[in-house]
Specification:
Elements: H1 2-28, H2 32-75, H3 87-98
Length: about 100
């Protein structure tokens, strides 16, 4: 977990450096300022979407854990009963299409 935090910090530093370089280049060119503005707006949207995807994956993982818990509590040793007619595979495929 510590390594992940280190990598995230390094990634953030690299992004800041890249942003500074972009601003420097944009100031040299008249059309660069508009291009930089568009790029920053796109980057903000990308960051928002990335955060949203992370949150959605987290929610999905939590729901999956909950379903596994319910299944094991209700069926314990007879887990085969859950999928005896193939509905579990259909539900899984439907969930994949949604995501």
């Amino acid at each position: 977990m510590l390594r992940l935090q280190e990598l995230e910090m390094e990634n953030e530093k690299l992004r800041d450096n890249l942003t500074a370089l972009r601003k420097t280049v944009a100031q040299e060119e008249p059309s660069g300022k508009e291009l930089l503005r568009q790029l920053e707006a796109s980057q903000e949207e990308l960051n928002r979407r990335r955060d949203e995807c992370i949150q959605l994956h987290s929610v999905l993982a939590n729901q999956t854990k909950g379903l596994k818990s319910v299944a094991s509590n209700n069926y314990s040793t007879h887990v085969d009963i859950i999928n005896e007619d193939g509905e579990l595979v259909l539900a899984f495929e439907a969930q994949k299409k949604i995501n």
